């Protein structure tokens, strides 16, 4: 049986108090929202905070609020199950609601939160194992070791970003609100992530993610498609988030396509985006734009399914995501 290590549990009543506790305890402290990622990681000794700061009692983090300008403010502690059924999101942000519904199982979505999914730890075949298993291979670069077993000659960790919502919110150009010792700040969601399996977030350790801001409805259409071995609960081995902006004649004037599950962040499919802009979404354009996604889908042997097959199927899933925006 895997057991949790000993830790001190805090339940601050304000965001400022939570940030103060995290700042005081430094690397020994971690925030916990729903706990569906942190607690299993603690049992496997991936993360071993001695101070766990719960966000359960922090006010203002549990609401979904539609603003007068049409934007939607989603508190970091809103349950995933609430978001997948939310009437406004189903009507105006169906791609986001669909991505939430694709996360794991109903049981987990009843506990997991949107903040936790946006900050999900990166994953890898050699990392997501018990402490004893990892010890038998002398650990890995991401935790306790010095070698990336995916690419032993590489100076960096190649663990992958496996959140279902991240590719969509990045494609949508959503924003996130962070609260730190200097107060709140808002940044584009895409700027929250970096291409590094270990240091995969740009936020400061003590900063608290408090809200996700979705854009107002407009002349755009978004979609999300997911590849996984078992459709019931697996993490994505590829998740494609797409958002296309159209002019009055149905011509794409702007395109964002992000590939999740293929790298340490949601990879922009830049060449795909270039092929879309200035064109209508014909079958020929979709096929060409999908084919252009093979190169950035830099799959490695760090998640499920065959590496080369995953790379070859990326254009198919990108094309499906684009067709869903038509």
Q: What's the short story on this structure?
A:
With 326 residues, this protein is of the alpha+beta class.
Structure description:
The chain has two domains: 59 residues, Uridine Diphospho-n-acetylenolpyruvylglucosamine Reductase, domain 2 (2-Layer Sandwich), CATH 3.30.43.10; 221 residues, CO dehydrogenase flavoprotein, C-terminal domain (Enolase-like, domain 1, 2-Layer Sandwich), CATH 3.30.390.50. The strands form three sheets. The protein has a five-stranded antiparallel beta sheet with strand order 4-5-8-6-7. Strands 9-10-11-12 form a four-stranded antiparallel beta sheet, sandwiched between helices. The chain has twelve helices and twelve strands. α11 packs antiparallel against α12. The protein is 29% helix and 20% strand. The radius of gyration is 20 Å and the shape is globular.
SSE diagram, text form:
Layout: E1 8-10, H1 15-25, E2 29-32, H2 38-43, E3 51-54, E4 64-66, E5 72-75, H3 80-84, H4 87-92, H5 94-101, H6 106-111, H7 114-118, H8 131-136, H9 165-171, E6 175-180, E7 183-188, E8 208-214, E9 220-227, E10 238-246, E11 252-260, E12 267-268, H10 270-276, H11 283-291, H12 307-324
Parallel strand pairs: 1-3, 2-3
Antiparallel strand pairs: 4-5, 5-8, 6-7, 6-8, 9-10, 10-11, 11-12
Helix pairs in contact: 10-11, 11-12
- Specify the biggest β-sheet: 5 strands, antiparallel
Structural class: alpha+beta
Query: What is the CATH first-level class name of the largest domain?
Result: Alpha Beta
- Tell me the distance between the termini: 50 Å
Largest beta sheet: strand ordering? 4-5-8-6-7
Number of strand segments: 12
